[in-house]
Amino acid sequence: MKNTTKRLIKIVLGSLGVMAVAAAAVAGYLIYPGTPSSASSLIFQGYVPLPSESTLSVLDYLTVNDDVLFVTSESTGDVYRMRLRKGSLPTVSDLTKLAGEPATHGVVIDPSSHLAFVTRSEANTVDIFDPVKMAVIKRIPVADDPDALFFDEFDKLVYVASGDSHLATLIDPATQATIATIPLGGAPEYAAFDTSTKLLYQNLHDTSTVVAVDIAKRAVVQGWPLQGCQAPTGMAIDEVHRRLFIACNANSMLAVFDLNENRVVATVPIGKGPDSVAFDPELHRIYTTGKSGVMAVIQQDEPNKYKVLDTIHLHYGAHTLTVDPATHALYVAYAGLLVNPSVAVFIPRP
Q1: What is the DSSP string of 49-100?
Q2: 208-236, pLDDT tens digit by residue?
Q3: How far is Cα 306 from Cα 113, in angstroms, rounded to an integer?
Q4: Which residues in the chain land under pLDDT 70?
Q5: b/e 166-191 (16+ beta carbons within 10 angstroms → b)
Q6: CA–CA dist 329, 220 (Å, integer)
Q7: Which residues is 160 bridged to in the sheet?
Q8: Rounded Cα gap, residues 17 and 196, in angstroms
Q9: Which partner from 9, 106, 266, 321 sits 20 to 30 angstroms from 297, CA to CA?
Q10: What is the number of alpha carbons within 13 Å of residue 334 lying toward its C-beta?
């Protein structure tokens, strides 16, 4: 009986030890981002840590404006300004933080006033701030759950997509006030402007459709189902070939939508739960990533022909990215758990 009890104790202690090791391994994986997996198309340059006092920092959109990168923190409400260096990683002296309450999402710059606009979904506002001094100037109430926003260079307006309210709010930067709302007919995610038609194409997540918004008319003028694409999220546009690249969150696809024929002409399998898409028009490359932390690098051989160059394992929660079209550098936002959030920097391999 004593021997049996001892064996049981040893088995229980051994199991607890294995569980403790496994838990430590999982915690280590979630906390400390390792080096991204190797790739034939990209060179990993390193991480740029972002200052944060929070236990958890989940980052959202990244926006390149000239030689500056803006990064938002959904969990803390902070907005980071990072001065970009050609040929080297930014340092701590290149970073400035605008603190605020959760949750921040998109940033745009008005080219006339050089003021910045950022969405805050828990406050239901768009904050105007000085991007040089990183100081808030004014707060503008908008429709519930503001997320992505865009600058309409034709009408000189800021377009704000609000998910819960199924509305877009228009802000006049000149008067710093809202001037109209546009019913979208669904929950908006990301969007893209087509300069040839002066239309904004908006993903609707809950209906798996894309709609064309005429901002001048303050109306949705057309809409189409996204065949083979479930729960669209991120979007980018190839204006030369008139193609939309749409991340399909629920079925892990990249859908290619032809703006001339108004239909999906290709789909490409990518990492689970894709959230963000970026397009480099000079290199003809599409980049996607999502909550699973898998980044796909896709080459556009022809307008309707695509191939996956690399599937790169990053880190769980690395779900947003952007590309600098001037330098071709790629920036990916990494969440921080018990460690600082960071931005991973990649450059194309020669």
Answers
A1: E-----SEE-EEEEEEETTEEEEEETTT--EEEEE--TTS---GGGEEEE--
A2: 999 999 999 999 999 999 999 999 999 99
A3: 40
A4: 1-30, 32
A5: bbbbbbebeebebeebbebbbbbbbb
A6: 35
A7: 149, 169
A8: 63
A9: 106
A10: 30
